[in-house]
Amino acid sequence: MNKIFDNKQEFTELYRDAVMSISGKSVEAASDLDRFNALAKLVAEKARTVATKSDARATAEGKKRVYYFSIEFLIGRLLDNYLLNFGVRDMVAEALDDMGFDLSVIENQEPDPALGNGGLGRLAACFLDSMAAEGIAGYGNGMRYRYGLFKQEIVNGSQVEATDEWLTHGYPWEVRRQDKAVTIKFGGHVEGFEENDRTFYRTVDTQNILAVPYDIPVVGYAGETVNKLRVWAAEPVEEHFDLEAFNRGDYALADAERAEAEAISAILYPNDAGEHGRLLRLKQEYLFVSAGIYSLLDTFEKEHGENWELLPQFVAIHTNDTHPAMCGPELMRILIDEKKLEWDDAWNIVTQVVSYTNHTILPEALEKWPIGTFSKLLPRVYQIIDEISRRWHESFDTTQEGWQERLRQTAILWDGEIRMANLSVICSHSVNGVAKIHSDIIKNIVLKDFYALTPEKFNNKTNGISHRRFFAEANPTYAKLVTEAIGDGWLKDAFELEKLKEFQNDTEFLKAVGASKRANKERLAAYVKAETGLVIDPNTVFDVQVKRFHAYKRQLMNIMKVMDIYNRRIADPNFHVTPTTFIFSGKAASSYTFAKETIRLINSVADVINNDPRVNEVMKVCFIPNFRVSNAQLIYPAAEISEQISTAGKEASGTSNMKLMMNGAITLGTLDGANIEIADLAGRENEAIFGLTAPEVEQLWASNSYFAWDTLNGDRERLGRVMDELKDNTFAGLSGNFESIYNELMNNNDPDLVMADFRSYVDAWEKLTNSYGDQETWNRKALLNTASSGWFSSDRTIREYRDEIWHA
Known about the structure:
By secondary structure, the protein is an alpha/beta fold. Strand 21, helix 26 (656-662) and strand 22 (666-669) form a beta-alpha-beta unit.
């Protein structure tokens, strides 16, 4: 363990100096925010010292460097995690306590960086953590969003998007690297020129933007390796303040150039319903791709000169979904136009360096760009893509039966659009899915024609999570219990959690597991009361569904279950309901009306149920606003039921299922995504599986035999009652009825099979909660989930990427 402070005395002296340096005050007179900034800066400085040594070691050992490109990195708060990884968390907490301060209070001053939103960004952050822990020279490359997605507020039950001003007080972990800034060119036109009997191309009359990098340290467990996450901010190349416009009162115009440039890195996922939003998204994607590739080539050239043929030996570029799909053509452009390589040589390099993770099952969700928009904004990159497409067409064996359809399915350019997933596959030497079922669907459905042509490219890498953050850091009471039982080796090797199986029949240990869960429920209840004013009872079952809102994730089915239970309890006060708190959290995309209506429905149902004394002793509904990493770390440890209820065949993997499993929650879910592997590892008897399987769903739609009206009419008493309540004012008191949800299900034939799985789901929930009274058995199942969760550590996933894709 590479500890950054030798003892409490050394830390105390350094910390007092740091507080004085940044605030001009003694530690006693400083604010909590000052105390946080000083501690974070102190740890960050130590981390950067280790990072310099890590980088030098990578160079000396000739390590292959891995560059992980992702539009999102949901890194969460860093202070507690880095104190843990450097092995000094307890010592720092004690030293601060000696000074009269609480480490947790100081840590709560840290903002959640708005650099991501959902599972894609959190996965990327977990992977960076694990690359550093495994000693891989691995670096994140993304965008520095000034405001992120949005801060979610709930007003009259509805989601309202507010600005997430996470940078208001600065961000002590980052360092601006002006010396590494890159000029990015948009628009203009391409012209050719002759040089050494070859024709080269350049883009002229461009609009230039400066991409400025900010580096954030990534501290690996044990503190031996510190890598970096580099995020790019968009700025004007030259400061141009129009003094004349300012003096005549046109203040917006005076600084318009800066505002236009900075808009590129202002918001994560700008609304792309209109042309301006689409252009902004495309600019974002190109800026972080182009800047990142220039940056990594600069590093390579300093170490290996212009020996570009060595690039595959020393560099791996991994693209996290299709947002960085331009990595292939942009690397081609630079190698051909600027490094003067021949096409075939450049292509040989690109297709050995680039690899691609697909996260999408739904073909309609695969990213596409209109050719007109793309070619106008990025004319030379489009020419490169067009040439890749032409050569792909020429490579087809037209003697094979069905070649025309296969070409249509695999074409990059088709029907006036650029298909970014197809571009990613063609430019990559490896294509992976993120759970076994997902990878099978990719090979058999989504990208089946590519798989038929190049099966050797395709592989599975089931997602993983950082067990140090989401277990050791998030759940200190349970982690302490585990360490006392099996030692602390599990922090390095999560597979050691399997040793917990030896305690499954230890009554006292199982009681301690239950006591830890109770403490976490009390902690979450206190947070909920402080944030929302709602009082929830830790004596009830905490039934949790926390994730991005989407129709296929079926938060709607969950709240319909709650409505059904409520109806039955009102109709029959003797109907048994295991006392339960139904906990929801997550954001809906600002333009996704159906998902936002589902949030409104949940809060409207909560408004009725939570104010109805006839049911308050047995049920409450809780929506926790503004789901993010910091409150997720309170929710996961408190959960007892993990709701993973997506339509089978639609969830690529999921990662909240893994975090909840690791913290001892029992999965109530469909056989979808990584739920299948969870059930296989922990044992089907320790989960609650229900609903149609992916093959059954496929068969149902293929046979044209499913009709939502038949399902509704077959269950008028319960399902029919719930559906009627969407329109009959039962839950309209807060902000109106929900005809749009009703119409989506009935007019579109229940596209996510909410009604088809409804009774199976409610029955499974009742059976599971009815077993809650046997606490020893429940705690045993919880323990066995934790004991079986080590396989879901992102350390394991990253080792598979390292050995089988990156060869690093």
